[in-house]
Amino acid sequence: MTLATHEAAGGLVAAVVAPLPAIGFVLAFLSHFALDAIPHWDYNISSLERNPADPLRNKVLFERGFRGDAAKVVLDCLIGLAVILLFHYLAALPLVPMLIGAAAGALPDFLQFIYFVFKAEPITSLQKFHVWMHATKRIRSALGGVVFQASVLAIIAFLVIYCR
Fold first, then answer.
1. What is the tens place of the pLDDT at every residue in 76-134?
2. Angle at 143 between CA 142 and CA 148, to 5 degrees
3. Which residues are paired to 60 by β-bridges?
4. What DSSP element (H or E) covers 48?
5. CA dist., res. 126 & res. 112, Å (int)
6. CA distance to 17, 54, 58, 124, per residue, from 51 (Å)
7. What is the C-alpha to C-alpha distance for residues 111 and 90, in angstroms, rounded to an integer?
8. Which terminus of the chain has a smaller tally of CB atoms within 10 A, N or C?
9. Residue 95: which of 107, 104, 106, 86 has the closest Cα?
10. Using an 8 Å Cβ cutoff, are 61 and 69 in contact?
């Protein structure tokens, strides 16, 4: 899933338990793995050297397309924050818990980046879990992937907004 989807879903999950920010953080963090378990589309990260036989041996190459990848990631995060603000203004959901949830929802991918660079515990164990949870089946079409993720997010938003 894209970071925008993880952020928005994490923010929505945290909004459900707004008076309990620590629980919201944990639930948003766990939502990342639940979403990654669903077959989905991800954009290409060209600076990531993948090892198909052993994903734990993937690594970031800072000289190969890293700046472009960093720009994609920043834009992805900004889209997620824009979606959070949209839900805040349109559905009167609490902003601070949603921002905490957004950070928690995106955190596993940030820790994955740290793992690709340093490969040290306890991040290694978390990365093993992340790989294990991640769907092996992919949506190949970018348009289909974006539409699917928007649909998943719409379902989560419906459940949070209309069932609270």
1. 999 999 999 999 999 999 999 999 999 999 999 999 999 999 999 999 999 999 999 99
2. 95
3. 48
4. strand 48-49
5. 8
6. 39, 5, 5, 16
7. 31
8. C
9. 86
10. no
